[in-house]
């Protein structure tokens, strides 16, 4: 009989910080579009005799992350120690990485996630600051090295082993990325490598307090990959344990194309890295007043913003969640609400129905869409819908076409002229001929309705909307359809 196992997961997230220069030198950190090996100097190339200098902005941003995660910040008289983490790979020119081990900048925080209606708290073990490595480019018969990325500031956020499912792991990294983006300290772009994830996973018998042997999974560059890789590794480990085998402590890579984890190397232990204090950098002593100043300038974070949207604008928890997923969207929502404060809920609905689809189908930025569909135009469209000038479907179309740049209104008069072209058909005399045509062309659905199949009404309403290009008043359409169909039932005609 198969045993029940508990899943134990800890996550490590590496996020590049948005600084102008690298961690320990003055080279530009904007390496993405630069020619290979063009943003380098003796320090980030690890040449003998070069001495590092700490980037104050990177230190400030790391403190911001720690504060946002509810961590304790190590302030004077506590020391923050720099360490050398020794390992020999081609992407590390010095043969070691300047990092932090036992005395990090921040420690002891948490992230709350909601899953299946249940709130879970994922404890943060530490947030520390280090330098990124160079980038390896694998060709058919050679491996090339671009040192532009070497030395870019990198924070590592490490959790306690509190995560209990692949779904929780995915929810955790989504929340962490959201917080980093709200703070403005990292783009969180996983495709470009700005946020890189690793997971440590083990299984233990249900009810046991002892941790099992873990494997580490690398190459997780999307939320989907986190969930899929962990789900695969759970089943791989389960099969080994149920067959009486033992899990080896190994580093696994995730092969997205094949959907499997693959062995990369036998897992190193902490002692393998031969950590020792970095002799070229003295310990840091953080001033309490500086940390308090940083704390006072933290932006409104997503959970607080969500609560405010519910209280201030009367949004549902679901709508507030959707509108605070990205800081740019939350900012746009408040700009649009300022232009039409009468109904914030309608503003949120219109953003979801008209702007989100355009964002998804194109590569346009939200800033570009806001330029095409300024707040006063969206407010005018919502007002026209609520005043009965246009139908809901027409309002959707007008907002979406404006967002795509297909309709441009320079002033209120021009916007009113657009509405006139889409004027709602709201009279019986105008709609009856269309309804009679639809009924005459669809005898089988008419027969189904007469047999008691009321759901056919939705089909007829859709056909009328199609005939009128969405300009018919749906409530009047339904009323007239029922009247005509009842006439037919009583022996009348739909002619």
Could you characterize the architecture of this molecule?
This protein has 495 residues and is an alpha+beta fold. 41% of the residues lie in helices and 19% in strands. It has 16 helices and 14 strands. Helix 7 crosses helix 10 and helix 10 (375-386) runs antiparallel to helix 11 (392-403). The relative contact order is 0.09. The mean pLDDT is 89.
From the structure above, extract its key features.
Arc Repressor Mutant, subunit A; 9-stranded mixed beta sheet; 495 residues; 41% helix
- Class by helix and strand content? alpha+beta
Main sheet: which strands, in order across?
Answer: 2-5-6-9-1-10-11-12-13
Mean pLDDT: 89
Query: How many domain modules?
Result: 3
What is the strand content?
Answer: 15-25%
Residue runs with pLDDT of under 50 for 5 or more positions: none
Query: What is Rg?
Result: 30 Å
Distance between the termini: 71 Å
Please, how many helices? 16
Q: Report the order of strands and helices.
A: EHEEEEEEEEHEEHEEEHHHHHHHHHHHHH
**Largest pleated sheet:** 9 strands, mixed
Annotation, overall tally of beta strands: 14
3D shape: elongated
Estimate percent helicity: 40-55%
In short:
41% of the residues lie in helices and 19% in strands.
Secondary structure blueprint with pairings:
Elements: E1 5-16, H1 56-68, E2 72-73, E3 83-86, E4 96-99, E5 106-115, E6 118-131, E7 135-138, E8 143-146, E9 153-159, H2 166-183, E10 195-205, E11 215-220, H3 223-242, E12 250-255, E13 260-266, E14 276-277, H4 288-296, H5 302-313, H6 317-323, H7 327-339, H8 344-361, H9 366-372, H10 375-386, H11 392-403, H12 412-421, H13 428-441, H14 443-450, H15 456-467, H16 474-489
Helix pairs in contact: 2-3, 5-6, 7-10, 8-11, 10-11, 13-15, 13-16, 14-15, 15-16
